[in-house]
């Protein structure tokens, strides 16, 4: 079953059209200490789970959130860049990576509440937040239901719902098929391991959630940078819907890009997101739209 989720993750990355980039990224993840750094890695017991996290750098707090089936080391290109100016906080989300989770259920709301609890654990009043894919969903929820914790928000490849109005039809059909196959495999197992159960929870999450109402985006009041690839697995029109639903939002669509914007365009991505966090974007209204 783990192979099924790994297949989905790999395919989402390969929608960028670069096998060479994917191979280099995998090699970098295999050799980095990020996500398994014994010198800085710690566990926080919160909300019934044992959450693994790492902190790098000093300065203004920056929480970075990975996607479905991912872990801290997905941000090997962002950690060293942002740690020069920020206190970079990363965690393996519930049921993923090194985080221990024995619960039967899983939702994006649970994960965003976990991250809020982690900030409390670290005595951090608020932070800039960067989320990729499912991490973007959790960033949106964190800003909606814990607005005091989010100073600025940048999300890439996030979605509000799992249907084909938001997700590319080919990808949505594939994910549903893999979810059904995984559920059937689990039923046939006499003694499925906790890891296997977690894999199924993650596939279910990817297939049937989130279910966020567009109107609820009005709850987000912090400056928000909404990012997507022009050939992302999340449709451009849906990314535009998220942008238009947030009052204080800015939009960045990367040309010739799929879902993996922090990897394929890592240098440009880091610079643009870094600039967004570093200084206020101007408000563009009325006649200001001409400039």
UniProtKB/TrEMBL annotation:
One GO MF term attached to the UniProt entry: triacylglycerol lipase activity
GO biological process: glycerolipid catabolic process
Signal peptide: 1-22
Transmembrane segments: none
Domain AB hydrolase-1: 61-160
Keywords assigned by UniProt, alphabetized: Hydrolase, Signal
Coiled-coil ranges from the UniProt annotation: none
Protein name: Alpha/beta hydrolase
């Amino acid at each position: 079953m783990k192979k099924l989720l790994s297949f989905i993750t790999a395919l989402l990355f390969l929608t960028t059209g670069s096998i060479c980039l994917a191979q280099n990224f995998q090699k970098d993840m295999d050799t980095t200490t990020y996500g398994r750094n014994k010198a800085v890695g710690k566990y926080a017991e919160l909300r019934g789970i044992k959450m693994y996290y790492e902190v790098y750098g000093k300065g203004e707090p920056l929480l970075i959130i990975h996607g479905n089936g991912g872990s801290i080391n997905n941000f090997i290109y962002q950690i060293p860049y942002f740690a020069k100016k920020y206190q970079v906080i990363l965690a393996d989300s519930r049921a993923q990576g090194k985080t221990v989770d024995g619960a039967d259920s899983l939702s994006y709301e649970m994960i965003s509440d976990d991250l809020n609890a982690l900030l409390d654990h670290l005595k951090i009043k608020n932070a800039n937040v960067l989320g990729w894919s499912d991490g973007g969903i959790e960033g949106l929820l964190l800003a909606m239901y814990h607005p005091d914790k989010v100073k600025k928000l940048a999300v890439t490849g996030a979605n509000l719902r799992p249907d084909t109005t938001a997700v590319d039809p080919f990808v949505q059909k594939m994910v549903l098929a893999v979810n059904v196959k995984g559920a059937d495999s689990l039923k046939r197992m006499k003694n499925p391991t906790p890891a296997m159960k977690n894999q199924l929870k993650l596939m279910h999450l990817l297939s049937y959630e989130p279910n966020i109402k567009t109107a609820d985006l009005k709850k987000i009041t912090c400056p928000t940078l909404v990012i997507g690839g022009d050939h992302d697995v999340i449709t451009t029109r849906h990314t535009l819907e998220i942008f238009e639903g947030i009052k204080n939002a800015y939009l960045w669509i990367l040309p010739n890009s799929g879902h993996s914007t922090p990897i394929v365009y890592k240098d440009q991505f880091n610079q643009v997101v870094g600039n967004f966090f570093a200084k206020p974007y101007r408000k563009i209204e009325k006649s200001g739209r001409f400039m």
